[in-house]
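Hey, I'm writing a tutorial for new members on how sequence and structure tokens pair up, and I'd like a real worked example in the thread rather than a made-up one. If someone can provide the structure for the chain below, I'll link this post from the tutorial.
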Amino acid sequence: MMRRLALLSVLGSCLILFLSFTAAWAAEAEPKVGLVLGDFKFTKVITPEDQKYLGLDKEGPFGLQDIKAPYVFLESFNTTCPHCLAQAPVLNNLFTLVEKDAQLKGKVKFISAGQGNNEQAMQMWKKFHKVPFAVVPDQERALSKAMNFSPYPVSMVVDKSGKVLWVHIGSFDKAEEALKEIKGVVK
């Protein structure tokens, strides 16, 4: 009798846990064009060069409104994600293409936000992948919460209000294709 009660208790607990995870997962929806991320903040950039690149006036927390550009390319990633690892050189190439494009140069600033990653992990990522744009730790997952979406990678172009103008879920292989799509939304 006691064994049966213990087994039923364990099974009931597993069912409750499963249903709560299913409900939480179902609550997330892929970010789409038109979504407004709201007023979220990153804790800090990891280098003075990144602070200068973004045009931030001071160290510490910052939001999209603090960045000196009308558009921001945001990447939500994690250092342990194999898809993010494969995308790193593609994003470096996309950044170079944007910087060489007269229509986009100075209008779009890039930020890769390490979801759940600390500053040390971001420093290693930036150095190992020779990332030429801003990389920020996002241990509290502010970007994921703003999107209401936690899988990665997710790449987006947003305006100063946080409105998503372009989004790509998952990694992409060709920087040139992303560049063409981004040029279609940046005015």
